[in-house]
Amino acid sequence: MHAEASETRSIFGPLLEHPGETATASNNSFGDFELAGWEDEATAAEYDRHLSLVTTQSLEALLDDAGVRRGHKVLDVATGAGYVAAAAAQRGADPLGIDFSTTQVRLARARYPGIRFEQANAEALPFDAESFEAVVTAFGLCHLPNPDLALREAFRVLKPGGRVAFSVWDQPERAIGLGALYDAIREHGSMDVGLPAGPNFFLFSSPERSIEALRHAGFDSPTFRTVAQVWRSSDPDELFAMLATGTVRAAATLRAQSSQARTLIREAVRQTISTYQRDSEYEIPMPAVVAAAVKPLR
Hints:
It is a single chain. The protein is α/β, with parallel strands linked by helices. The chain has a domain at 5-171 and 197-229 and 288-294: Rossmann fold (3-Layer(aba) Sandwich), CATH 3.40.50. The protein has helices at residues 9-12, 27-39, 41-55, 59-65, 83-90, 102-111, 147-157, 176-188, 207-216, 238-245, 249-255, 259-274; strands at residues 73-77, 94-99, 116-119, 132-138, 158-169, 220-227, 230-233, 277-278, 281-285, 288-294. A seven-stranded mixed sheet has the order 3-2-1-4-5-10-6, with helices on both faces. The protein is globular, with a radius of gyration of 18 Å. The protein starts with 8 loop residues before the first helix and ends with a strand.
């Protein structure tokens, strides 16, 4: 991955060398770009319909590492369709889900009417200090202009002894569905398509970077682990179609390719996916990593 880091910048954002370092000249445009993408009802629906089948496979690990249990007040940041908040409620916790997208908030409220969901900014949480026993975010940090600031906000709103946990995709060479697309664009198209610069999509996929970020935000006893997830499909073209319609950065990059390049990219992804055929189904590894830490006691 180190040899490829400079090549991933235009599709996945610049590789920031240290937590707290941000692409300040373009943070606002990147945030606006991400928000506009996730406000789109079709994009949110496609993500919910397809990618959530993968991302929900690691939600119990996320809640475990956050220490979520009965009676805990839990903040679910970047809640999306509300799956993590709902799983916390099943444990007897008292969850509150927030998302910067009003479209996502409406989707979550419709699916889980008994749970509270609100529109809010992860980088400026509208809550008092020491309000929650746990703060969690599933696959949300990679969509924020300043993920380090979101971690500091999580620290602020946690009670002493409270825990934070987040999940992100594993490195693209292991999260095969994403890696296949990345490799195909690099080979057959262009990753330099003028998207607003933001944090690298895989910024927190390594233990060193996640642990450093958590310590930088003030947390103690950081942990990091890989959680197996599998994308299952009967159609080798389904993953390409889903990434082209149910994501923001990847979809925008694909739309910017020429028609010929898109055809070649689709074929290359199909060839990679075909190597994971098991009988009549394709089983593509899409692991997550989960990082967690604790707010020190006074």
